[in-house]
Design a protein that fits this description.
Blueprint lengths: L1 E5 L9 H9 L14 H15 L3 H8 L8 H11 L1 E9 H10 L5 E8 L5 E5 L5 H11 L3 E6 L5 H6 L2 E5 L3 H6 L5 E2 L2 H11 L1
Parallel strand pairs: 1-2, 1-5, 2-3, 5-6, 6-7
Antiparallel strand pairs: 3-4
């Protein structure tokens, strides 16, 4: 049996931090896992910037409330979920993702949790497990599933490479150049066709 594992941001919804960077006028927050492979380092840097500007969870959630899934993403997910088990694996946080999952029809999401003070300041974060995407894919494989994976960033490469079939979706030129062996797609129709060939 197959399980399709998809990244969230950049694949089915816009990048939350880029949207918040634009809303807050803080250009440094545009940096994502497409730019920085070390997620822990990236998040600690982001939290430092938020603290410096006196911004907390509410301000980010206000921005997220205005974000819609990428055009065609819900239809893609609905079609895929009618043909296969689908799991969204993301390094985002429950407090960010819930409104977006609602707009996508509540697909299954495995992600992480923010530590938030009563004041609303984000004081830290708890990762579900180390190397969460790869660890999850390996765990699924250990209980008899084959995985098919797709993502756009450095932190998706491990799960893509460990899967029976893996694809890059709307990725960067640098990641595409570093992994010419991975099929890279720009449209949901292309990605859906490639996944179907491996179901």
């Amino acid at each position: 049996m197959n399980i399709v594992c998809l990244d969230m941001e950049g694949v089915v919804v816009p990048e939350i931090w880029i949207a918040f960077s634009e809303a807050s006028g803080i250009p440094e927050l545009k940096r994502t896992t497409r730019d920085e492979p070390d997620y822990d380092k990236l998040m600690r840097w982001r939290l430092g910037i938020l603290k410096e500007h006196g911004l907390g969870l509410k301000e980010i959630q206000d921005t997220i409330a205005k974000i819609d899934p990428l055009p065609g993403a819900k239809e893609f997910l609905d079609t895929l979920r009618s043909e296969a088990q689908v799991l969204i694996l993301s390094d985002t946080f429950e407090q960010f993702a819930a409104p977006l999952m609602k707009k996508l029809g509540w697909p299954t999401l495995f992600c992480n949790t923010l530590e938030v003070a009563e004041s609303g300041e984000i004081t830290g974060f708890t990762m579900r497990c180390e190397h969460s995407k790869l660890t999850t894919v390996k765990a699924l494989q250990s209980i008899g599933f084959d995985t098919i994976a797709a993502g756009d960033s450095f932190n998706d490469l491990d799960m893509i490479l460990a899967s029976k079939a893996g694809f890059l979706f709307r990725t960067t030129d640098a990641i595409r150049a570093a992994h010419p062996e991975l099929p890279a797609f720009e449209t949901y129709d292309e990605l859906l066709s490639a996944i179907r060939e491996n179901l």
